[in-house]
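Q: Predict the bound structure with zinc ion.
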Amino acid sequence: MNAVDKIIDKAEQICLNRGTRLTAKRKQVLAGLIESNKALSAYELIDFCESHYGDTFSAMSVYRILEFLEEEGLAHRLNIANKYVACAHINCGHTHETPQFLICRECSKVREIRITPDAISNLKDNASDAGFMLVTPQFEMSCICKDCAPQQPNL
Amino acid sequence: MNAVDKIIDKAEQICLNRGTRLTAKRKQVLAGLIESNKALSAYELIDFCESHYGDTFSAMSVYRILEFLEEEGLAHRLNIANKYVACAHINCGHTHETPQFLICRECSKVREIRITPDAISNLKDNASDAGFMLVTPQFEMSCICKDCAPQQPNL
DNA sequence: ACGCGATATGTTATGTTATAACATTACGAG
DNA sequence: CTCGTAATGTTATAACATAACATATCGCGT
Ligand SMILES: [Zn+2]
Ligand SMILES: [Zn+2]
Ligand SMILES: [Zn+2]
Ligand SMILES: [Zn+2]
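A: Predicted complex:
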């Protein structure tokens, strides 16, 4: 059983425990997100599934499935990029805290890291001082990854 | 001369100094952003200008003008909201550092605050440890503003 | 095994955000 | 005044996302 299958398997257990179902279609979409190894737009994901699994999805289906996966904590929507990414922590035991996403603006590779509680409370305090209550469930930042850095002019 | 006109006037000087032109159309769009007092999508901005100034823009024009305003530092694109907002610091002397935007997810009101150099270098270090170089010119966070908080269930 | 309600998927249409490509107009330096 | 550049107009289309309703599938109680 390869690494991806293991993650899918874990995802299925998570759904079972929550009383939801990781159907074949949903597995396929989640597998696409995991195997692509980067963030994909819904339409890129459709193409990926078509070319890698020969399975074809309508945009509607993919959006619905992505919504499901996000509710289950198995995928995340990256708002600054209009793309979707598999959760990097499906397989590791720890609870899923407020994530921070480092997104390569060149190749859409993503690192999902944990932000320190300090940093969060700092941000909350700053917002609060300005009369705003922080409700964002995640932080997203545009970056250049190591692989893409060499190709960048003027860095 | 009212407050908005003063800002527009300052914006015009800024453009002059940079060798660019704040044309009548561009002034209109910038005025719309300022007077609306919140973030607007390009299409909302078109409606605003139509209803408040009787001036009609094509989507194409507005996108071009928004691009111009952003290049001149007079407006900002809010990626997490797909909306645009006038810079809150056109009129105050200080240089424009990395901004942090607190965006009300209910009413699109925006506070543009400065993020402390500490906090930035902290974020940069964290990213760097993960093999990513932070290049984001701004930080955006989804919030609830004071006015909208009372209407929120379960807060 | 059967019937039924709930969940999931299929299908078509449409809304929303954004850019491409090319034509025309306005502006300003020489 | 004239010519090149910058700005705007116009039309078409790409890319992202949701609405509304039809059909199929699943799982439970009988
Ligand atoms: Zn995650
Ligand atoms: Zn990269
Ligand atoms: Zn600003
Ligand atoms: Zn609000």
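A: Chain A has a mean pLDDT of 94.
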